[in-house]
């Protein structure tokens, strides 16, 4: 197969245009940020055509990134780059199979922790205290849902009161970009999370006894709310 001359910037633009059909703008932003770093590296090396990009080029890019970022950031970048190279294969800009030669940055287990995911040790200790002293409080229901639903804070922000189905019981996670709470993979990220009756009791008691009767700027009723509207930590 004869490769076609393609500049890194043109390849990036075409890749982003394809991504926009099925991911959110936030994902596009993150993807573009990593690709911009790659293009900066390629231009510094004098590489003006994707046909000149090899697995060694990408390995040198990884080394360059690790000089200024943590391994977990470099790993995320390398995953994006590998996906980008696979796209470049599809438009005949680089050899078929090049993406398979790209090795993703290895990260130590202690560096795997993501700040917006609640850890088991923290959750058990916190929930024990909340169960005793702050039952069905805003903090109690927030921590309980984060832990029991395996949910990230960004997912918690999407929830309205009506997303709690007490009958099953379940939490319904929905993509609502028009009212400020998009999901990363749009409708593909929508799901119903079944919860245990004891967790449902906490949510129901919070809604009935502790949650203020407020709406947000879109006339929605956020599940996690205070007298001032939605209150989910950044």
Annotate the secondary structure layout.
Elements: H1 8-19, H2 25-45, H3 55-66, H4 71-90, H5 120-133, H6 138-148, H7 153-156, E1 164-165, E2 170-173, E3 191-194, H8 197-210, E4 225-226, E5 229-230
Antiparallel strand pairs: 1-2, 2-3, 4-5
Please name the CATH topology of the largest domain.
DNA polymerase, domain 1
**Category by helix and strand content:** mainly alpha
Low-confidence stretches: none
Name of the top-level CATH class of the largest domain: Mainly Alpha
The total number of structural domains is 2
* Residue share in helix: 40-55%
Largest sheet: 3 strands, antiparallel
Give Rg in angstroms: 22 Å
- So what's the oligomer here? single chain
InterPro entries: CB, DNA_brk_join_enz, Integrase-like_cat_sf, Integrase_catalytic, Integrase_recombinase_N, Integrase_SAM-like_N, Tyrosine_recombinase_XerCD
Pfam family, one: Phage_int_SAM_1
Organism: Halopenitus persicus
Keywords: DNA integration, DNA recombination, DNA-binding
